[in-house]
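Tutorial, part two.
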Amino acid sequence: MRWMLVALLVTLGLAHPASGWAATGCSLRNPHTDIRGFFPSYSDYIVQYVTFARQDPGGSAALSRSLRDELDPLFESEDVPYTLYTVRQAGVTLGYVYGTNQRGKHGNLQVIAVTDADHVLQEVVLQTLRSPHRDAFLDPDWLRQLSKHPLDSWTEHAACYVEGHCENVPVPDPTGGAASADHRAILRALAKLALLRSALLHPGAPMPPRDAAALAERIGNHEAIELSRETGRAWGFAPLSRGGLEPDEPVVVLRHRGRTTVYPVAALRRVPVLRDGAVLLAWSETSRTASALLTDRPLVPTADLLFDVRLLREPAGGGTWAPLLGRTLIGPAAHAEQLPALVVPARVAVSSAPWAALWTGAPAPAARASVQGPRALLVERMRVDPPHGDAVRMGEGDLVVQAEAGLPWALRLPETDAPSALLLDDDGMLRDPATGLRWSRLGRALGSGLPDLSWPVQASLPRSSATAFQRP
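Running the prediction step on this input gives:
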């Protein structure tokens, strides 16, 4: 995987082909097998490689201060990549795996932390260890003792790993002092992993990238999945009102040039890149993201993710597209108009736009992995948390509606005579409590002479990643 990141940075003009890291990062030797051992029920995982040099120049100096020790010029330089595995099962994050190289008495050590989704340490793994006392350090009971203590707690033992005063360490040297240097090195690696989690890796909560180089490193490779088929044909359409959709079935509603079209999410899982005339509709199952682009470029899905949104590739030119950005990340610069694509339950679409056209694609083999991630709202490059109530007024004229659990979206209220608040009534419509005027949940006025609200905007991103997706 490391060579893929190098190639990516070279393509972006952010690294020279002849350049390299001073030392390789600590990655799992057999990730499929190793992760299965850590998380037996896992279905897929995402792997990323990040460096202080790209994400936070000068961050190594801060790491050294927090560690209260000098950094090794070979194993801990700013351009050493650190690997983060995000492990999932049917869309739910099970946990994270990350490791570090550490200089030991007899050579390099590789210490790996396995945590659950709440960052609670589950296992400590010594993947590489050269020592005449290797068996003592690999004893399962001793490693279990290490994992019983919070990862952050190891940062409190600098007196041991720096100065050799290890009397108060909760897990003593299993060799009785015969290999104290390696014991201290392992404890230092655990302290370093705790600091790397918050200073660089940010598992589950990526930071906004500082520049294009940092953004490139945040592209992760989606493993243990099989890409769905893609198609360039729209096939046919039928009236939505006679489509026979289940009320709670999720659909994508798209409006372009006065035409409202509905696409069942179940079909988009099988055909995640669909062309409908000038509109390209892309579905990302990892974040349940629907993205519509006005472009004539042929794009296909890839195994690369940026903040849980699947990137697309142009086979002929080799360019890579970020759908929610509406432009290329790699390859010749090209832009596309972004169209709002809203994910709602079928009953919301039917009640609000019964005249819409329902896409009726021919059956295709289902994707092997069905992954669903957490959701958030991204409106005009600003993250808006889902409201606590059914509907609340947000900002200057923005109304954020959470009519269904996990499906928030936003509408723009009219500039004149706008109600101070809207509520959901018993019929599932938006109602002004002061006047009794009503709108559908997609903003259509339900009275003569009443202005429509704006077409809703929704970006289905993991909440922690919504602001991080904004390119500087």
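Residues 1-22, 363-389 have pLDDT under 50 and may be disordered. In part three we will examine how such features are distributed along the chain.
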